[in-house]
Amino acid sequence: MNLQQRIQQQFDESLTVKQAALAVMAVPIEAAIRLMAASLRTGGKVMACGNGGSAADSQHFAAELLNRFEKERPPLAAIALTTDTSTLTSIANDSAYDQVFAKQVAGLGRAGDVLLAISTSGNSPNVMAAIDVAHAHSVRVVALTGKGGGKIAAMLTPDDVHLCVPAERTARIQEVHLVTLHCLCDGIDALILGEAQ
Questions:
Q1: Is there a contact between 179 and 72 (Cβ–Cβ < 8 Å)?
Q2: Are 80 and 48 in contact (CB under 8 A)?
């Protein structure tokens, strides 16, 4: 297989996975949009966490809400729990790396807030710990996963929303995560700005 064929294969696989994801994720994405918009409208906030590429996605999502997505509007309360190196390293050093997001949720989370918990495998221990703390503080959870949802799938309550990409390959899951985050941003803006019901 030459490089052009490899490139074609990557695009073809990405398109196939995205079509499959749309079929199973459109309804829960709408539910997540409505949950987040309701929280933001009533003075709540969205906290986002994840590791590696999912940490970058957390930061990307929080920036789109706090600043703007595609249209000007008032800033929306969002924070990525992945950005403060002093907080992350002190928690990892003094407690355990598994607690780097959980302690932040415990300190910052309030009833009515939403935690966006991102894990391609659904098995990230520190994301799972954050979900546990979120539940204890009446913070609703939107879990963005793949690979069947892993252990996170079993942790979610009927009040939570599970956005699970129907794929096993990490790269494909991450690509669908990105378009999902853009759907969330677009939908939240549409509800906040009165462009959708």
A1: no
A2: yes
DSSP secondary structure, 112-158, as one string: T-EEEEE-SSS--HHHHHHHHHHHHTT-EEEEEEEGGGHHHHHH--T
- Please, how many CA atoms are within 13 Å of residue 60, restricted to the half-sphere of its CB? 17
Q: Which pTM does this prediction carry? A: 0.97
* Helix, strand or coil, per DSSP, at residue 80: strand
Distance CA 112, CA 109 (A): 9
**How do residues 106-158 score in pLDDT, each as one tens digit?**
999 999 999 999 999 999 999 999 999 999 999 999 999 999 999 999 999 99
Residues contacting residue 124 through CB under 8 Å, at least 6 positions apart = 50, 51, 54, 152
Which residues, in sequence order, are CB contacts of 147 under 8 Å at separation 6+? 120, 121, 122, 167, 168, 173
Which uninterrupted H or E stretch holds 193?
Answer: none
Domains defined along the chain, listed by start: 14-192 (3.40.50.10490)
Taking every pair of Cα atoms in the chain, the longest distance, rounded to a whole number of angstroms, is: 54
Q: Sign of the CA dihedral 60, 65, 71, 74?
A: negative
